[in-house]
Structures are given as C-alpha cells and as structure tokens.
Amino acid sequence: MRKDMYKVIVERPRRGGSYNAERQPPLDPEDQPQRESLKIRHRSRKWLNENLRPLERYLHAQVGRLWDRVYSEICAGIDRRNTVQQHIHQHLDDFVVVRTVAMHGALYYERGWRGLQPLDGPWAPKLYVDPHSGLLLDNHAAVEAKRELRRQRAAERAKPAFPDRRPLDDSHQLHRIDGIWYEVELAELPRPVAGPPVYGKRGPTLRMPYDVIAKAPARWAGKPCGHRGCNACRPYGRAGVYARSKRQLNRHELQRHGLSNRDGERLH
C-alpha cells in the first residue's frame, strides 16, 4: 500500500456549508424566537468527501493473500487513532465481508438491521474472507447475481406497461378482455348534457354515452391530464375518450398482430 493512501482518500475539500441556503430570520422582530440553537439556521452543513476508489482497487489487487496481512498493511498506512482516518476503516465492510456464517451448506453475512443475508446475493460485497483458509477471495457469485438482477430489470422495463392494451391509432385500440382480444373504437367524450328531470331526484340528470368496456355510462373526468397512471387516463391511455364499440378479432387478425387469445403473448 502506498504511504500516502490516507491523503488520497481523505484529504479532499468537504462539500456543503454554503451560505445561500441559510435560513433567514423572520422579517417581523415580534416573530423571532426568544431562544434557538446555534445549528437551527444552518441547513447546508458540510459532509465528508472521501475518494474510496483507490482503497477498492487496492483490495482487489490483494485477492489470494491472507486477510490478516492485508489488514495489517491497511492499519499501518491508515491510523485508526486518527478520527478522520478511522472513518476509512468503517468503509471496509462495504467492500469486504470479513465475518461469515456457514449455515445449511451456504455462507451468510450480517448486513445491519437486515440480519443474515446470503453471500451469493446481488447486494453482497465483491470480496470476502474465506472462513477456513483466511484468504481474501473474489465473490463471483454475488457479481453474477447482480448481473442477473440487472438483466431481469431490463427485461421488465422492456415489457409493455399495459399488456392488455395495444394502441393502433388515435381512435382504435386492441384490448384483451377475459383472455379475448377485441378491436375497440374510441370516441371523444362529450360535455355533460342536461337531460329532463327524473321524478324523485333533485335537478336534471346527466346523459352520458355508454362505454362498452366499462359496461356503464362514461364519466367525464375533466380536462385531460396526459398522465397514464391516473384513474382517468388508465383505461385508454388518455382522458376524455370512451369505448364506443368493440369487435372480436378473428384468427387472421390475431396472426397479423402477433397475438393469441389463449395467453395474449406474441407469436414467434
């Protein structure tokens, strides 16, 4: 280990402490508190700004050596009696699993309040100390698990957000209802029209067109917001429209769109 490792890691300008984010006192002197702490107005405080990449590269370069010797070299270069340098030792657990537990033929490590976690999990550090030989080894299983997790997340993002709905154009969509695909014709939702009064109710009733998907009169949700997650935009991707008619797709149309009434997946 280089002798100035602690300088490379620790001696960097601390961030924060800007006076632009300070909390200003009230304009009216009557609103000012009688007592307050010294830190209450200082919201932008300084924090440490370590560069831990050199330490991580050093640890990966020591793979295959005894951890006791590697840790002795770290303690010789980074003094634990120094408050600032002691903070570096606290980051060793982020890169190396020193203490492992063998249970049911597998290795586990303790991860804070989460308790025992498998060493081959995607969140485990990339290095660990073998409990039998005491050597510093690469955690290849954790690296591969993290890659697999990334592939799964990428596959989930590639899937359509609404698998039961396929837009064709502005006025036509494909909807899967109870496992059957239909071509739905959309129409603009008119403004509520006042109809004749109904006996037993106060004021006139509102006559709205019938929505064949909701199987109920359409409801006006106000101004279209364009957000696909709200209740108004979720059925058809936007607000202000309703399903005027629907028609079941035949076998040739299903093949053309790459769909199936059985599971709704694309045909290969």
CA radius of gyration is 32 Å
- How large is the count of helical segments? 6
Q: What's the mean pLDDT score?
A: 80
Major beta sheet, specifics? 4 strands, antiparallel
Query: What proportion of the residues form beta strands (DSSP E)?
Result: 15-25%
pLDDT < 50 stretches: 264-268
Order of helices and strands: HHHHEEEEEEHEEEEEEEEH
- Give the overall form: flat
Distance between the termini: 56 Å
Which structural category fits the helices and strands? alpha+beta
What's the topology here?
Layout (H helix, E strand, L loop, with lengths): L4 H6 L42 H9 L5 H11 L5 H8 L5 E2 L3 E3 L2 E5 L5 E3 L8 E3 L6 E3 L1 H19 L6 E3 L4 E6 L2 E9 L4 E5 L6 E4 L2 E2 L4 E2 L23 E8 L2 H7 L11
Parallel strand pairs: 1-5
Antiparallel strand pairs: 2-3, 3-4, 5-6, 7-8, 8-9, 9-14, 10-11, 12-13
What does this entry show, briefly?
The protein has 268 residues and is of the alpha+beta class.
Question: Any descriptors?
Answer:
6 helices, single chain, 4-stranded antiparallel beta sheet, 3-stranded mixed beta sheet, 268 residues, 22% strand, alpha+beta, disordered C terminus
Written description of the protein model:
With 268 residues, the chain is of the alpha+beta class. Helices cover 22% and strands 22% of the residues. It has helices at residues 5-10, 53-61, 67-77, 83-90, 140-158, 251-257; strands at residues 96-97, 101-103, 106-110, 116-118, 127-129, 136-138, 165-167, 172-177, 180-188, 193-197, 204-207, 210-211, 216-217, 241-248. It has a four-stranded antiparallel beta sheet, with no helix packed on it. A three-stranded mixed beta sheet has the order 1-5-6, with no helix packed on it. The protein is flat and about 80 Å long. The protein starts with a helix and ends in an 11-residue tail after the last helix.
